Hints:
Layout: H1 18-29, E1 43-47, H2 59-66, E2 68-69, H3 72-75, H4 89-97, E3 112-116, E4 132-136, H5 138-142, E5 144-148, E6 157-160, H6 165-173, E7 185-189, E8 193-194, H7 195-198, E9 199-204, H8 212-217, E10 224-226, E11 232-233, H9 234-237, H10 241-244, H11 246-255, E12 260-261, H12 263-272, H13 277-290
Parallel strand pairs: 9-10
Antiparallel strand pairs: 1-3, 1-4, 2-8, 3-7, 4-9, 5-6, 5-7, 11-12
Helix pairs in contact: 11-13, 12-13
Protein name: DUF3626 domain-containing protein
InterPro entries: DUF3626 (IPR022074)
Organism: Streptacidiphilus jiangxiensis
Amino acid sequence: MSGDDHHHAPSTTADGNDHAVERAMAHVAALSLGAAVDDTLRVTLNFHPDRLTATGVPLLARLAEDGVYHSQFVTGTSNGGLTAHPGGDRWRWESRIFGGAYDTEPDTARPVYGALNVRGRSVGGAPRFGSAHLRLTAEAVGRATFCYPDSFYEPSTFGVAAAGSAVVEAALADAVETDPMDGYVEAQVHGPVLLERDVEALVLDPCFRDTEVEARARLLPVPLEWHGGFRLTVAELRRHPDYRGPRFVELGARIAEAGVLDPRVVGDAVRAGADDPQALKKVWHYLAHFGAPQA
């Protein structure tokens, strides 16, 4: 789902069609190769916890109200391109890979997207899509399908929990990973994702300690954890003009506070609305790549 389509806001319903889920998972299972996925691996849903929904409500506040995490088909919001509509790229991808199982289903029945955290990163399986993540339970892994690479590239390597080792091996074989923003195993979690049932923890960046983000996070019915924190100095940022481009380096240097970027700084700039959100997304890529906490 390159184009940063992974960012999903919650929805108010938890509808799901068991028959469609079974059809979709069976279709992918027939394409899957290999042994069972390591049962210690978890699916993570990376997102930016300080963003607003399309109606201007803080994302975590909406999540607390609803208790459900849904796809952009429901929410109409994304961390990038919006192609989740009939005839859009996301719709066509789902029709192809899930054997048309969801073509006539309500949007609330569709899967949500995350990543199988095959590298065991403290920041989640796909930090490209946000500094925070929901870590799902082992049971949720059992109703997920997987692909590598990202579905944007129309991959041919698929998996399910019972036969997903080929997908994991394909991702790990890319040992010389030029960009940690890529190389994740995309996961599609079928059936509604309910906070109380399906989430082991919400993991936040420590830059959000003692902020409204932490206060809202503590209203969720899930444990709160912290990772090591994304942090990038302007001096280090300026060493990598070729990564996303010099103009994004300069934008990052301009919005930095006391010569440092962290997720809160980037989020403040997004909500301020003075700069192109797509340009700020590239600044986030710089921070997530070069400012990630050490393993």
